[in-house]
């Protein structure tokens, strides 16, 4: 994997082969950040990276100047790798080793962008639990986005607070927004 833009642009990061991950492709990541670049000043936002895996998305935000990044993953190897990489590059990434659903139930730390890259084989009920917990617990700041990455074969358009989706090859990003704004 490589960092697309920012101060660490073109840096390659090689994750251990034994991690249970499926990193977001460079093409999909570049397209996602093109969308986000038009809506946010990266140095002014906070990010919550759920099912962080290799930390691919967190590194991209850090490279673009985001100072408040929290990466959540339940795999010890993933958390260790993110910590090592963040330390090596001096990136402001905090990690939490936790089951994402338990973390979302307990945290009271809202973010401007919440990115979730759960296993593609999740059931629709498991996918639905992500926006349900995010919005029930008011974890998305005003004008923020929840982005869920999933297979193009999964349709999340019927979930609460769904806004729109973008497809990139076999990857799809579904965007959720707080619809209860005044």
From TrEMBL:
Keyword Methyltransferase: yes
GO molecular function: methyltransferase activity; nucleic acid binding
Gene3D superfamilies: Vaccinia Virus protein VP39
PROSITE patterns hit by this protein: N6_MTASE (PS00092)
Keywords recorded for this protein, A-Z: Methyltransferase, Transferase
Entry annotated with the keyword Ribosomal protein: no
Listed GO biological process terms: rRNA methylation
Any one Pfam family match given in the protein's UniProt record, by short name: Cons_hypoth95
PANTHER family per the UniProt record, alphabetical: METHYLTRANSFERASE (PTHR43542)
Listed name of the protein: 16S rRNA (Guanine(966)-N(2))-methyltransferase RsmD
Source species of the chain: Pseudalgibacter alginicilyticus
């Amino acid at each position: 994997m490589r960092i697309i833009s920012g101060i660490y642009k073109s840096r390659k990061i090689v994750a251990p082969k034994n991690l249970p991950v499926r990193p977001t492709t460079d093409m999909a990541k570049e397209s996602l950040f093109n969308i986000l670049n038009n809506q946010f000043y990266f140095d002014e936002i906070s990010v919550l990276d759920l099912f962080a895996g290799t930390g691919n998305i967190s590194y991209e935000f850090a490279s673009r100047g985001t100072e408040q990044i929290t990466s959540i993953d339940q795999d010890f190897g993933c958390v260790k790798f993110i910590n090592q990489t963040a330390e090596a590059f001096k990136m402001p990434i905090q990690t939490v080793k936790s089951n994402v659903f338990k973390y979302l139930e307990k945290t009271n730390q809202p973010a401007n962008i919440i990115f979730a890259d759960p296993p593609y084989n999740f059931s629709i009920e498991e996918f639905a639990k992500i926006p349900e917990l995010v919005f029930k617990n008011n974890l998305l700041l005003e004008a923020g986005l929840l982005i869920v990455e999933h297979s193009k074969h999964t349709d999340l358009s019927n979930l609460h607070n769904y806004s729109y989706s973008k497809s990139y090859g076999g990857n799809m990003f579904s965007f959720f927004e707080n619809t209860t704004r005044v």
